[in-house]
Amino acid sequence: MFTISCVPDCVRAEPVIYKKLEATSDDVALLRAYVGDRPTWRNPAHPWRVDSRFKLTGVPTLIRWENDAVTGRLEDHEAHIEKKIDALVAGK
């Protein structure tokens, strides 16, 4: 999960994400990465914006990694939707 703690989308999504992950019986590891302060994140050359593995456009973003590959992701506008988090965790 990539976040900035003062961004409204992050503030809205974080409790939902943690609630859903705590309730799952699947073996899930959550790695939380901060993208920096607002000016750092807004830089178009931010490493996670330009890295082909991440290609972040917004925060929070949830990315499912499996066997060294991205197998699913939720972008900032959907990272708070419980059904989508369930589907991402389940690999659907």
From TrEMBL:
Transmembrane parts of this sequence: none
Q: Which Gene Ontology molecular-function terms are recorded? A: protein-disulfide reductase [NAD(P)H] activity
Q: Which residues form the Thioredoxin domain?
A: 5-88
One GO CC term on file: cytosol
Q: Tell me which domain of life the UniProt entry assigns to the organism this sequence originates from.
A: Eukaryota
Q: Name one Pfam family in it.
A: TXD17-like_Trx
Family classification = Belongs to the thioredoxin family.
Full protein name:
Thioredoxin domain-containing protein
What is the source species? Ficus carica (Common fig)
